[in-house]
Amino acid sequence: MKVGDRVKIDFIGESATIYSGKRFTGYGVLDRVEDGRVFGRLDDGTPFSCFTADVEIIPLVDRTEEFEAFFTAQPFFKNLRFIHGDKLFDFDKGIGYRNLTVQVGYVCFCKGDGEFVLND
Q: According to the lineage, what is the superkingdom (predicted)?
């Protein structure tokens, strides 16, 4: 387990705070890992802290190749390629695509949302 890992959590908080007795469940990202505990935040922004046993690491699936093949078949691709050239699909691990249009398309593609596709 390391900082930045995507995780699924499911535990009941036991602390002297407002979160005591609250059930934490969902997906999030780890911010800190130490001494058998993890600290992170759920996708909705809720912070959490629990034992490593309460965390399941979600393996990342690389869908960039599949996405780029799909994206190049879209009617707006030629215009974007003309504007941005070879840098259109620049990708940084941990950040994503450098081009905002491509990054938004990638997120929609991964979520199965086809509404961003324009029809001629």
A: Bacteria
Beta strands in the chain (DSSP E): 6-12, 23-34, 37-42, 47-51, 55-57, 91-92, 96-97
Alpha-carbon span 40 to 16, nearest angstrom = 18
pLDDT in tens, 86-107: 999 998 876 789 998 888 888 8
Query: What single string gives the DSSP state of each residue in 87-102?
Result: GTT-EETTTEESSHHH
Q: Round to whole Å and give the CA distance between 2 and 92.
A: 19
Neighbouring residues of 85: CB distance < 8 A, sequence distance ≥ 6: none
In angstroms, rounded to a whole number, what is the distance separating the alpha carbons of residues 34 and 60? Answer: 22
For the chain, domains (ranges, CATH) are 5-57 (2.30.30), 63-111 (no CATH)
Enumerate residue ranges in the chain where pLDDT < 70. 15, 19, 94, 113-120
